[in-house]
Design a protein that fits this description.
The structure holds two protein chains of two kinds. By secondary structure, chain A is an alpha/beta fold. Chain A has two domains: 181 residues, Rossmann fold (3-Layer(aba) Sandwich), CATH 3.40.50.300; 58 residues, no CATH class. The longest helix of chain A is centred in the middle third of the chain and has 21 residues. In chain B, strands 1-2 form a two-stranded antiparallel ribbon. Chain B is globular and about 70 Å long. Classes of the chains: A alpha/beta, B mainly alpha. The interface between A and B is medium-sized, with 32 and 24 residues. The structure holds adenosine-5'-triphosphate (ATP) and magnesium ion.
Amino acid sequence: MIKIENVHKHFGGFRAVDGASLEIKEGSITGLIGPNGAGKTTLFNVIAGVLPPTSGVIKMAQTDITGLPPHELFAQGVLRTFQIAHEFGSMTVLENLMMVPGGQTGESLWNTWFHRKRIAQEEAELKERALDVLKFLTIDHLAEEKAGNLSGGQKKLLELGRTMMVDAKVVFLDEVGAGVNRTLLNTIADAIIRLNRERGYTFCIIEHDMDFISRLCDPVIVMAEGRVLAQGTAEEIKRNEQVIEAYLGTGIKNQKADGVNV
Amino acid sequence: MDLLNALVVLANFVIIPGIAYGSTLALGALGITLIYGILRFSNFAHGDTMAFGGMFAVLGTWWLQSKGISIAPLPTALLVIPFAIVLMILFLLFCDRTIYRYYRKVKASPIILVMASLGITFIMNGLVRFIIGPGERRFADGTRFLISARDFKAMTGLNEGLAIRLSQVITFVAAIIIVAALFWFLNKTRTGKSMRAFSDNEDLALLSGINPEKVVTIVWVLVAILATVSGTLYGLDKTYKPFTYFMLLLPMFAAAIVGGLGNPVGAIAGGFVIAFSEIFVTYAFKKFFGYILPKDMLPSGIIQIISTDYKFAVSFTILVLVLLFRPTGIFKGQSI
Ligand SMILES: Nc1ncnc2c1ncn2[C@@H]1O[C@H](COP(=O)(O)OP(=O)(O)OP(=O)(O)O)[C@@H](O)[C@H]1O
Ligand SMILES: [Mg+2]
């Protein structure tokens, strides 16, 4: 679905992404893990059109999408969330979600005046969908709250909610689980699985929580120092010597030796 | 009776001019604040944008006057404003496409955009002087006074007169209509909301599928409307003189900053704060106090805090005080 070919992103002389090549298969939930500063978020930013790559190509189903601006990628069904949650602080949670499908009829001034009825109907449908999403994420009681007042975890849920407002093709989640408590984390994991199975979303997930990754992701790709270090199922990755050394640490190995299932 | 006279003096020389001037500044500051909130730079060309819009209106009015078309008792200029707005929209979009768009594309820092706007100021300035000349241009017609001082005296039997010019009333009414329409637009329509979203968090707006070029286009449309209306009405109330618009830049920026840059409610409040401070501080209160103080207590001077020559110092002082003590303005700035 998405193919990343030898992408580089340099900041001055610093190589944040240094020749990363990977593929995200259609219908998969691909995990992307790696130590802090490995270049995962930078790679997301390059894919999402926020940062232009220094070099390299990003393809979606054979077509070159390198450097397309974010709103055009959005129109093609490529969505992402932010590691540091973003929200429209001065709007309510409900309005935040209703903002998402950017290319609505109401977008044009002309239509605002001359197709009032159609717009009213669209707004009603949109609101219903937004409320469903909020219920799904168990934050429907916050619908009228200003998004700026949400807690960090709630903002993360709102981020995920945004991706559910449209029919996305591929969604890039940057640490949706960080700062979210265990029960909510399960809710998020369930939501991801359901979106994947029922609505055919392809996911690429950055996450540091290995339990979360093992539960959801196949394959798992490990990045380190701007490059892909290893790729395989979660079990293979946990056993990979290089990965243990660069990222997971020996804790995992010891646990395995003790027969504890991580 | 004396108290009434005193109040009439105050209304005539401070309150009514303050409301009209405040309306002009509010509309101007709104334009500045919209650009700051969404395009994220301080548009130094706003004063000259008003002059440019006003120029279209003056030329159109002259043309209609020469054809004998009028809508008396209302000024003919009102008829021309919509057409002037359309021309202004085209002109501003032309400036945007040829100049600002490039800097947006290369993600230039705000200061570069400010410098570009300064360049555009000079170009507009030159064009206006070339087309219509630097002098005063009269284009007002229709009824001048809604209430003249003499009628007012005759009506009330007071010593003091209260004059209300039609152009002052039009300015105020136009400001109310435009502000109401703008707020309806920003808060109720989807396009308006996407503009607020863009102002609030650009990254997120882009990733929510909002097309930035569309938002930018609408900003310029709104700015064209605000600048043309305020430019024309200001010219109608005083006379049209290109340089005065450049001089408005300081009070308008002060208004936008006092209110909180990027905040439309703040821009309006700021406009009136600046207008009233300026008029209050430069008004000679001798007559006013003449009515309410006993003769022997009346000071001999004209009781003016500072001379009108220094009226721009007022905006400047308020600006400095706000930046020192409350840099975000009365209302929190930075987002619509
Ligand atoms: N705009 C930038 N300018 C300069 N350096 C940057 C910029 N963005 C990221 N970097 C650097 O690039 C490297 C990779 O950062 P990145 O955010 O992609 O890491 P990450 O893999 O997402 O880490 P984490 O797990 O902590 O989120 C870091 O060393 C960071 O300092
Ligand atoms: Mg990161």
